[in-house]
Amino acid sequence: MSQFFASQPPLIAHLPGERSLAVKVAIAVAGSILLAISAKLQVPFYPVPVTMQTLVVLVLGMTLGSRLAFATLALYLAEGMAGLPVFAGTPEKGIGLAYMMGPTGGYLLGYILAATLTGWLAERGFDRSLPKAAFALVLGNIAIYVPGVLWLGSVIGWDKPVLAYGLIPFLAGDALKLALGACLLPLLRHVVPARKA
Asked: How far apart are CA 96 and CA 150, in angstroms?
């Protein structure tokens, strides 16, 4: 049991200079840009088009570790709060705090929870095999769904079919993204060489 709580370096720790504050800031900025791009790219899928954003959130968590993933997602949300059109549907559906308080606000909160959780799990070795990576990614996706659906229900009213609006249409696309992420993470571990002490 103590091994489960023993911290291991995330994948980003194998990059040269990753302990430098300047490098960490650059990684967080690059991650926030990647999140903004992934929010804008839609892939045709049934029953609804999907963005790659949840996959990027989860993979960032698993590769950056809990602290840097939290900082990256916090920066991304701060950019959106400041009025930058970094979220899906912005600026068409509004920007800034008004957008964040709308129906999708809970999912945005879920992003930061999911990235931090998957980062914590990666620091405990959950990015090193396909079954463990899949388990971590599923937990991360649940961390997005729960506040997302709860917030959506509070905004539109629980008399509406909240699950039909905010959960069920996304399950198939998210399952595909989770499978992709679960295969990608152990592969990255083999591609990125371990840093020598």
From this structure: 21
End-to-end CA distance of the chain: 26
Q: Please give the tally of structural domains in the chain.
A: 1
pLDDT of res. 194 = 55
Any idea what the CATH number is for the domain that residue 146 is in?
1.10.1760.20
| Domain around 105 | 2-191
**Cα radius of gyration rounded to whole Å, the chain:** 17
Instruction: Write down the pLDDT at residue 19.
Output: 78
Mean of the per-residue pLDDT values for the chain? Answer: 89
pLDDT over 60 (residue 13): yes
pLDDT average, residue stretch 41-51: 79
Return the sign of the alpha-carbon dihedral for residues 67, 69, 73, 79: positive
Q: Which residue has the tokens 């929870």?
A: 113
Contacts of 195 (CB under 8 A, 6+ apart): 13, 14, 15, 16
Please give the full DSSP string across 40-95, using - where no structure is assigned: H-EE--SSS-EESHHHHHHHHHHHH-HHHHHHHHHHHHHHHHTT---STTTTTT--
